[in-house]
């Protein structure tokens, strides 16, 4: 077994965790270079993490491995009926991808990505019970992926999404929640197309089914149906190369409303844990991502981008936003890549989540939560 094969088989052992995100528990971008372009990567694959954005993208990146580390920092604050709390965030999140050009028209690879949200208010004022508020949702996906080039420049991709999930809730005694941690496994599928449809112009299409997780038995008395699945989503991307410039655009639809635990209103009416029981009250998101990449020289690339989306947490459903701080869906991005050698490249990216405060209305009157986050990513890529 050669060195690349050993790395490919070892990749599922990497675990990614997170404690703050942009679009629900999802980051604005996956892959160090995509992060620098506002996440726009459905039609612009650049590394072996491409399968997270569009499985077909792995067909264009060749044999390579990529790893990254993202540091997330910032401050999140909440005020729940006068109970004021804050959390100084500092989280490190790894990412990984590996791809192998098995034949000129076939690639096989794997991408590992992390999702999640959480809060730890430390010495906090109890807001929803008798103890401090602390929450942590971590979801990891390992996506074995294969692509087939059915015509020159046109690729189909298929990913099997194998999921691991852990949930911890603390300080929610008023809702009947235990202070336990629970774990679940899940699975789903992702498919994609990537093709050159005109000189310099690429089109990407992708769809991911829900990742269906097992019941979280320690929390089935509070979570509708006891399950916290990842929602289905679909996206379209365009990328255009013009000399040293690449322009990329993505549209992504995230179907939060199909998952009862996330979509049910807190005032749904049913008992906690039932299919019609209270949830987070999230609505679907429409995400628009724009990115520009400039080849400044043979070795240096510069890039920037922006990600814009609607808030998935309506003001009338703000009661629980303080335990799931996922309400900063607009971000600005910068990045660069330096080609150290023909094989090795180093990438850096910075993302600033535009500050947003959710202020509750109606049944959520008296609740405010939000803040701002900064993310700094460093990535290494090696082509074989």
Automatic annotation (TrEMBL):
Record-linked InterPro entries: OMPP1/FadL/TodX (IPR005017)
Membrane topology of the entry: Multi-pass membrane protein
SUPFAM superfamilies on file: Porins
Subcellular location: Cell outer membrane
Pfam families: Toluene_X (PF03349)
Record keywords, A-Z: Cell outer membrane, Membrane, Signal, Transmembrane, Transmembrane beta strand
Source taxon at top rank: Bacteria
Signal peptide region: 1-21
UniProt keyword Membrane, yes or no: yes
Family to which the UniProt record says this protein belongs: Belongs to the OmpP1/FadL family.
Protein name in UniProt: Outer membrane protein transport protein
Species assigned in the record: Pseudomonas sessilinigenes
């Amino acid at each position: 077994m050669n060195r690349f094969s050993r790395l490919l088989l070892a990749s599922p052992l990497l675990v990614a965790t997170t404690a703050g995100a942009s679009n629900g528990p999802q980051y604005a971008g996956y892959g160090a270079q995509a992060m620098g372009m506002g996440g726009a990567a459905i039609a612009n694959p650049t590394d072996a993490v491409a399968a997270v954005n569009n499985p077909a993208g792995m067909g264009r990146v060749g044999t390579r491995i990529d790893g990254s580390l993202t540091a997330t920092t910032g401050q999140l604050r909440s005020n729940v009926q006068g109970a004021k709390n804050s959390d100084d965030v500092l989280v490190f999140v790894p990412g990984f991808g590996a791809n192998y050009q098995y034949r000129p028209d076939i690639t096989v690879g794997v991408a590992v990505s992390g999702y999640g949200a959480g809060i730890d208010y430390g010495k906090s004022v109890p807001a929803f019970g008798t103890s401090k508020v602390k929450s942590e949702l971590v979801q990891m996906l390992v996506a074995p992926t294969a692509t087939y080039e059915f015509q020159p420049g046109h690729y189909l991709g298929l990913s099997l999404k194998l999921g691991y999930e852990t949930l911890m809730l603390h300080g929610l005694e008023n809702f009947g929640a235990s202070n336990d941690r629970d774990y679940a496994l899940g699975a789903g599928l992702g498919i994609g197309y990537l093709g050159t449809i005109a000189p310099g112009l690429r089109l990407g299409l992708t769809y991911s089914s829900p990742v269906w997780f097992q019941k979280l038995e320690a929390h089935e008395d509070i979570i509708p149906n006891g399950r916290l699945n990842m929602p289905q989503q679909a996206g379209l991307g365009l990328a255009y190369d013009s000399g040293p410039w690449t322009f990329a655009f993505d549209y992504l639809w995230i179907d939060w409303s199909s998952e009862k635990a996330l979509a049910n209103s807190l005032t749904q009416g049913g008992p906690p844990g039932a299919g019609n029981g209270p949830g987070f009250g999230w609505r679907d998101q429409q995400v628009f991502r724009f990115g520009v990449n400039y080849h400044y020289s043979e070795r240096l690339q510069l890039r920037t981008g922006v990600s814009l989306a609607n808030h998935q947490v309506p003001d009338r459903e703000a009661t629980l936003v303080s335990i799931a701080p996922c309400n900063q869906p607009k971000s600005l991005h910068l990045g660069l890549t330096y080609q150290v050698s023909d094989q090795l490249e180093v990438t850096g990216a910075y993302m600033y989540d535009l500050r947003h405060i959710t202020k509750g209305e109606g049944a959520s009157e008296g609740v405010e939560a939000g803040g701002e986050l900064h993310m700094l990513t460093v990535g290494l890529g090696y082509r074989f």
